[in-house]
Amino acid sequence: EAGVTQFPSHSVIEKGQTVTLRCDPISGHDNLYWYRRVMGKEIKFLLHFVKESKQDESGMPNNRFLAERTGGTYSTLKVQPAELEDSGVYFCASSQDFLGTSGMSGDEQFFGPGTRLTVL
Amino acid sequence: GQNIDQPTEMTATEGAIVQINCTYQTSGFNGLFWYQQHAGEAPTFLSYNVLDGLEEKGRFSSFLSRSKGYSYLLLKELQMKDSASYLCAVRDRGGSYIPTFGRGTSLIVHP
After folding, report:
1. What is the pLDDT of residues B4-19, one digit of tens each?
2. In angstroms, rounded to a whole number, what is the distance separating the alpha carbons of residues A65 and B19?
3. Are A31 and A50 in contact (CB under 8 A)?
4. Would you say the C-alpha torsion B71, A35, A14, A74 has a positive or negative sign?
């Protein structure tokens, strides 16, 4: 079974440009999450999709970030315009069940390898 | 929100046992995860604790004490491939059940 994949693995752009990151979750996983890790800090939650709907986007830093999941399959995260502080590793994760509903293991998240974004 | 604290770095010898601690503060605890992350790779799930006690899974065990806000990950018979970052993540009912991650503990295993 293929795991979570992300594209590109690395992206280097200049401040003010636009970048679009893509995530393909594990097939059949309705839940898709975006996280970001800025250098030296912890992984931080950005948002959560259930199928094509945004369940929770409380972690999105500002309106320069736009996430979509049309059709409930893959997701994109667009940063427009990019700023220096957007540099970091963007992780995508998927899970079969929604965290918290069962309270048991088995709804763990499977992470992709991340996209390393560098804004110059 | 949650305050999650774990040591930044630890070193250990191949074949030894190492314990990585994680302390947290949360208002509505709903589970604690441990993930392993090798450099440049995806975090991979190791364990999940929601009740007090020890969960054993091969060479890895995870312990939880909810009253103390404390967990540890125990790695036995260390191998060189265990060199990685170990992430503690806590789920809170008040946080939409989305886990909050600690900064991770970088474990270096040397011969």
Report:
1. 999 999 999 999 999 9
2. 39
3. yes
4. positive
* Sole residue written with tokens 């503690």: B88
Chain-chain contact of A99 with B87 (C-beta, under 8 angstroms)? no
- d(CA A75, CA A59) in angstroms, rounded, equals 16
User: Do B104 and A111 lie within an 8 Å CB cutoff?
Assistant: no
Percent of chain B with pLDDT over 90: 77
Q: Which of B110, B46, B45, B32 is nearest to B78 (CA)?
A: B110
Write out chain B residues lying below 8 Å of A46, CB-based. none
Alpha helices in chain B (DSSP H): none
Q: Could you tell me how many helices (H) and strands (E) chain A has, helices first?
A: 0, 11
Q: Say yes or no to pLDDT of A44 above 90.
A: yes
Instruction: Say whether pLDDT at A102 is over 50.
Output: no
pLDDT of residue A40: 81
B47 to chain A, closest Cα gap in Å = 8
